[in-house]
Every structure is written in C-alpha cells, then in structure tokens.
Amino acid sequence: MLSRLLRVESFKHLLESASNALLISDHQGQIVFSNTALEKCFGYTGKELLGLTIEDLIPKRFRQQHKTYHADYIASPHLHGTHQELNDALKPLGLHKNGTEFPLEISLIPLETSTGLYVLSIVRDTTPQRPAEETPSQYEALAWESKARLQAILNTATDGIIIIDENGLIETFNPGAERLFGYEAAEAIGQNILILMPSPHREQDTGYIERYLQTGQGEFIGASRETTGMRKNGSTFPIDISISEMRLGERRLFTGIVRDITERHHFKELEEKNAELERFIYTVSHDLRSPLITIHGFAGMLKQSFTQHNQEQILEDIGRIQAAAAKMQLLLDDLLELSRIGRLPNRPEKFSLSDLTREATELVQSAITKRGVQIKVAPTLPHLFGDRRRLLEVMQNLIENAVKFMGDQKAPWIEINAYEEEGKLLCYVRDNGMGIDPRYHEKIFNLFDSLHQNVEGTGIGLTIVKRIIEIHEGHVWVQSAGAIGQGSTFYFSLPRAPD
C-alpha cells in the first residue's frame, strides 16, 4: 500500500516540496523514502539513502540506544510520549556524510499499512544560526580570527603541544615540541608518538590509548605525570606531561602538553645531595671516631706495656689496634663503594633474573651453608633491564642481610620471586627471620644505621641497595610486622624490561 502511495505523483510531490526534512523507514529501520530537504540535511543523494538504515544517520556511540528505542516504538508506537519528551530523552544528533555531527529534533508519525508498520520521521536541524546581521564575510572573518588565535597559542607556547589520533599518530607538533625533541614538525607529523619515548618507557606505554578506548579507563588520560622523553639525537630528559581527550565529530584526539623538567630535577637532586651530605658528614665523623678512639686508647696502653716489658699485654694491645684499624678500613671501603654508585658505570642490558639470583646465592653460599638456610627460588623469573653488576650487588646484599638476621630460627629459609604490576617489575626477597619493627622500616636504609650492633657489618648494605635501585628509577621498601619467626620481605621495583 505504501509503495503504491509513493508512486502517486501528487503524494510524492507533496513530500518532496515540504520544507522539513522527511524520511520514511520500515519496521527494521530501513529507509524507503527521503525528500530533497533531508538529502541536503545529511549530504547524501536519494539513491544513497535508500541503501541505509536510520542508524547510519546517527553517531556510532548512540546507535545501540536508538536501536532499543526503535524496537520499543515499533512494538507500541502509540504508547510513546510526546515529541518533546522524545527529544529530551534522546537528545538526538545527526551524522552528516562528511562525518560532522549536528543537533536535531525529530517528530515520529506511525504509518500502519497492510504490509506492516512504517514510520514517517520529520527532522529539523537545530544548529544555531549565525546572527542575521553578520554577513558571510564577517562570519568567515570571525572563524579566521579564532583559528589565528589558536595558531598563535600553539606557536608562542613555551611548552610542547602535541595532538595525536586514536592510533597514536602525531597530527600537531608545535614549535615548543620542536625545541624540546629536536624534530621539525614535518618530520614528526604522521609518526607514532612512541618515537619520543626511550626504552623501557616505550614498551610500557604501548597500547595505552587502545586500552583507554576499549575500557574508558586510563591512568594517563586526564592526569599529569613525570616520565622520560627522547630527543631525535637519542638523548633522554625528564618531562612532565598532561594528556587530555577531545572530540571532533566522530574522531577522538588526544592533546599532550609537555614540559622539560630537567632544571626541576637538578634542583631536587641538589637539595637531596645537600641533605645527604650533611647526614654523611655527621655519620662519618661519628662512626670513624669510634675506631680512632680505640686505636688512640690502646696505643697509650701499648706504650705503657712496652715500658713494663709486658710481652703478652703488648701482643693483646697490638691485636686490638689492628682490629680497630680493620674496622676503619672496612668503613672506608664501604664509603668508597657508595661514592662509586653515583652513576651507572656499565651500559644497561637485558638479562635473566634467574641467572642473577643463582650468581648472588653462590657469592653468599658460605654463610648460607653455615647457617643452614634453605633458598627457595621461583622456577620462572622474568628478565631485568639495567646495570647487571650493580643489580647483582642488590641481590647479594639482600640475601646476605636475610642470612645475618635469622636469629634463632631453627628452620631458616629465604624465598626469592618477582612479578609484574602496573607496568613495573616487582622483585622480593622474603625470610622467616627476626623481623623488623615497623618503627625502623625507613631508618634501616640510612647510612650506617644498623639496628643490631652485635651483628657483623658496617650497616651500609641497605644504603647501597637503595642508591642502586633509585638510580634505576625504582623504589625499595620493606614489609615486616617485627615479630620473630614472621621475618621480613624486601621489595624493589624496576622498569619492565623491553620486549
């Protein structure tokens, strides 16, 4: 019946000449008729529209919602609310053939026929019109001025401003970004944003946009964070980056504002070094004074014993002087080792944590055997990325520390394992020894702060561990209830090794 009606010229002319945009769709949403006004509204020809459904004229993010509404409407068209209620509920947007979105209002009229229900949709574009007093040239001038202002902001901003698409491809690269990264805009545009990231940050950030688009959750989007950037020449530098999302029609773009924080890092490092130097001077003067006092005291006693020709006492005094000198030598050696850790002397490399753990255990094997400690290492461990020699020191110190502080544990054991969490690698060394009172969890990493004076060592081992891990952009901490037998777990985090 409807098809016959549409073939009646007078009826068809009535629809074609209507000022409003009209379309007729069947119960499945398939478009069976559109007038010229609707074709102009959406940018399609009449023939193109006949092959489309209603959902093709709606932005993707609203299509499922519309399908649900359409199914309900077809089932009971007379039970739905007024046109105003419809538009208030759906707040419909149209999707032009060129991809732009525009607001519209819709009125629906059910057409019941012998072949089923059809729907006549009356569509009105509600895009705000420019004021009548503005001529096209004035309107274009305002648009040009707005664009010029935006371009001026991009050109004069001291920070780097980079816009990327959903695939991570660079679309905008302002002069600030050129200065920061050393690329010309023409070189950077079209490249993936990962060219501005060094390993292992590049591997950690791969796929973060895709995950955000799929889940709507992303730790980087809408937040500011510190990370590392890489210049065209391969050099790296610390940056602060804020990423936000914007929409242009159906397109989702991401804007990153990048700032070089090298000076901020230098200032922070200087403050930390000054504070550390103060602690160092105080600690060294205190700890080196002790063996010096011992040497001075027994030197006087040695002089007295020599005068008295007391051979046995002379040998005893010499032995104590030698022990004090050896302690001082040990302190000086440890201080020298600590000073060398100020930089990574070896090129970072990817290596097996299993091999590193085995080597560290062999270095401490004598103490392990003497104390009867069982070493439990996870069967599969991930790879690390860093200075292998320094990280061997970390593992050796942590194992040695665990052996030293087993206390009276009758069945001592040490467990070593690692796992990935939030893009980082977490390693731990766990024992069932004496444990550490939570009050001292921070103090134990300070220079020469040993909680047990009767245990052999200078108290510098954990300070070395902390320094090495921090140079690797990681963090080290301890978990322990302080109860005997419950032991301690030392954790350290490192950037994930590149694939």
TrEMBL record:
Residues annotated as domain PAS: 7-51, 146-216
Cellular component terms (Gene Ontology): plasma membrane
Pfam families: HATPase_c (PF02518), HisKA (PF00512), PAS (PF00989), PAS_9 (PF13426)
Functional summary from the UniProt entry: Putative oxygen sensor; modulates the activity of FixJ, a transcriptional activator of nitrogen fixation fixK gene. FixL probably acts as a kinase that phosphorylates FixJ.
Matches recorded under InterPro entries: HATPase_C_sf, HATPase_dom, His_kinase_dom, HisK_dim/P_dom, HisK_dim/P_sf, PAC, PAS, PAS-like_dom_sf
NCBIfam families reported for this sequence: sensory_box
Domain annotation Histidine kinase: ranges: 283-498
Organism: Nitrosococcus watsoni (strain C-113)
Domain of life: Bacteria
EC number: 2.7.13.3
Record key words, sorted: ATP-binding, Kinase, Nucleotide-binding, Phosphoprotein, Transferase
Single GO biological process annotation from the record: regulation of DNA-templated transcription
Molecular function GO terms recorded: ATP binding; phosphorelay sensor kinase activity
Catalytic activity, as annotated: ATP + protein L-histidine = ADP + protein N-phospho-L-histidine
Protein name as catalogued: Sensor protein FixL
Matches recorded under PROSITE patterns: HIS_KIN, PAS
